[in-house]
Design a protein that fits this description.
single chain; alpha/beta; Spore Coat Polysaccharide Biosynthesis Protein SpsA, Chain A; 11 helices; 42% helix
Length: 252
C-alpha cells in the first residue's frame, strides 16, 4: 500500500482577494493557519506539504508551515500542475491528496475516507461528485479534497500545454475520463439537494460571510463536519440567499 501525502495549494497573490490566506478569520488566525491546525490534528505532519510559489510574498505561508512543522515546496506561480509534480517528486509522494487552502470548511472525515480508499486502490484519480455528475472540485461546496497519482499528473503534462489545465491541475483528468482510471463517490443526498451553499473563498463577501459562519460553528465544535455545517445553515437560512448570489456571480 502506498501512503498518500497531503499537498496543500496556497498562495497570497489572489487577484480578487489579496492576502486572503492570512487575513484574520478566527480570532487572530488566518484560513491557512486554521487549515494546518485542523489537518495536523488527524494527519502526521510529515505527510503534509505546502505547495506555494517562489514569489517572496508567500514567505509568510512558509513561515506558518514551519510553525506547524509541515513540509513546504516552492515552485511556479502560474503553472500549478508543474508545482504539484515538483513538490511530489521532492517528497516522494506517489499518491497525492490535493487540498485547496481557500476551503476553510474542508470535511476531515471525508478526507480520511478518501485517503483510506485511495491508498489501497489503483485508480489514477478519486474524488466525489454530485448527482448530476459534476466533480465536487467544480462546485461551490468546499467540503471535499481530491486524490490523484503523481503518474497521472505527469501524464497530463505530457498530453497538454493548455494554460487552463496547467493552472487547475486535475481538470484535464476528469475532462478526459477515457484516458484515466477514475473513481467518483456520490456526495450525501442531504447536501446534494442544496444549490445554495458556497463555502469556498474568492471574494470579500465570501470571506465576511464565511468568517461569521466559521466563528459560530468552530467555537461550539472545533471538529465539525459537513453535516454540522449543513445543520447550522438550515437553522440560519439568511445565509443561503447571500451564498446563492455569490454562486451566480462566481460561476466555475
Amino acid at each position: 500500500m502506498n501512503e498518500a501525502k497531503i499537498i496543500i495549494q496556497a498562495r497570497t497573490g489572489s487577484t480578487r482577494l489579496p492576502q486572503k490566506m492570512i487575513l484574520p478569520f478566527y480570532e487572530n488566525e488566518g484560513i491557512f493557519s486554521l487549515i494546518l491546525k485542523r489537518l495536523t490534528s488527524i494527519i502526521d505532519k510529515n505527510n503534509i506539504i505546502l505547495a506555494t510559489s517562489t514569489n517572496e510574498n508567500n514567505d509568510v505561508l512558509t513561515d506558518i508551515a514551519k510553525e506547524y512543522g509541515v513540509n513546504y515546496f516552492r515552485g511556479s506561480e502560474n503553472d500549478v500542475l508543474q508545482r504539484f509534480i515538483d513538490a511530489a517528486n521532492e517528497f516522494n509522494a506517489k499518491k497525492i491528496i490535493r487540498v485547496c487552502a481557500d476551503n476553510p470548511f474542508l470535511d476531515l472525515e471525508f478526507l480520511n475516507f478518501l485517503l483510506d480508499n485511495f491508498e489501497k486502490s489503483d485508480y489514477d484519480y478519486m474524488s466525489f461528485m454530485t448527482s448530476n455528475g459534476t466533480p465536487t472540485i467544480k462546485t461551490h461546496y468546499g467540503f471535499w479534497a481530491e486524490a490523484v497519482t503523481l503518474n497521472a499528473l505527469k501524464k497530463v503534462k505530457s498530453m497538454t500545454d493548455e494554460n487552463l489545465y496547467h493552472e487547475h491541475v486535475t481538470n484535464f483528468i476528469y475532462a478526459n475520463p477515457n484516458d484515466f482510471n477514475i473513481r467518483f463517490f456520490n456526495i450525501p443526498e442531504v447536501i446534494d439537494e442544496h444549490d445554495d451553499i458556497r463555502l469556498t473563498i474568492d471574494t470579500q463577501i465570501d470571506f465576511d460571510i464565511q468568517k461569521e459562519i466559521f466563528n459560530k460553528i468552530y467555537k461550539i465544535k472545533p471538529d465539525f463536519n459537513a453535516f454540522d455545517v449543513l445543520t447550522f445553515l438550515n437553522e440560519n437560512k439568511e445565509y443561503h440567499a447571500i451564498m446563492k448570489n455569490e454562486i451566480l456571480k462566481n460561476q466555475k
